[in-house]
């Protein structure tokens, strides 16, 4: 059955997060040895911020509680970046969690960013720099 598997051909053309379900399927169908699939997962995860998941797979693969120092260092880096982005996005999140303030947004959407910045200092930074928080959070948690 493995001779008909096209995963290795299509995986390089897919977003790496779309490859995980394929690897899960291959692992479930036992087309390849578990160790080979787990090593592929770790390799795939090394290019993401899903460090905790990579550490769990590493522990499972090598049947140990120890992980390489580079994984630990990468985790510290990712968590620090996540905290920094959360701090940057905190004013906007606080604003959006208050329904009465959200009501103030204009339906025609003109001047909303300016109003948010002027009245609530939501964007002390460039608004484009505040958006990666959600994607980093997603990458860290594995959604």
What does this structure look like?
This protein is an all-alpha fold and 143 residues long. Helices cover 68% and strands 0% of the residues. Helix 3 (34-45) packs antiparallel against helix 4 and helix 5 packs across helix 9. The protein is elongated. The relative contact order is 0.09. The model has no long low-confidence stretch (mean pLDDT 85).
In short:
With 143 residues, this protein is an all-alpha fold. The chain has helices spanning 7-10, 16-29, 34-45, 51-62, 69-96, 99-102, 112-120, 127-130, 132-141.
Structural class: mainly alpha
Summarize the biggest pleated sheet: none
Using only CA atoms, what is the Rg?
Answer: 21 Å
Distance between the termini: 30 Å
From N to C, what is the helix and strand string? HHHHHHHHH
User: Which stretches of 5+ consecutive residues score pLDDT under 50?
Assistant: none
SS summary, helix count: 9
- Report the sheet-strand fraction: under 5%
Q: Helices, strands, pairings?
A:
Elements: H1 7-10, H2 16-29, H3 34-45, H4 51-62, H5 69-96, H6 99-102, H7 112-120, H8 127-130, H9 132-141
Helix pairs in contact: 2-3, 3-4, 4-5, 5-9
Task: Spell out the key features of this protein.
about 140 residues, mainly alpha, 9 helices, elongated
């Amino acid at each position: 059955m493995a001779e008909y598997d096209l995963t290795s051909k299509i995986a390089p053309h897919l977003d790496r997060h779309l490859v995980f379900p394929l690897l899960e399927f291959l692992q479930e169908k036992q087309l390849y040895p578990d160790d080979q699939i787990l090593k592929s997962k770790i390799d795939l995860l090394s290019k993401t911020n899903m460090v905790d998941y990579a550490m769990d797979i590493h522990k499972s693969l090598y049947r140990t509680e120890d992980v390489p120092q580079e994984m630990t260092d990468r985790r510290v880096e990712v968590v620090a970046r996540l905290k920094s982005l959360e701090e940057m996005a905190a004013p906007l999140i606080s604003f959006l969690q208050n329904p009465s303030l959200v009501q103030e947004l204009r339906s025609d959407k003109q001047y909303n960013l300016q109003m948010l910045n002027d009245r609530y200092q939501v964007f002390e930074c460039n608004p484009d720099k505040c958006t990666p928080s959600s994607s980093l959070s997603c990458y860290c948690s594995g959604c």
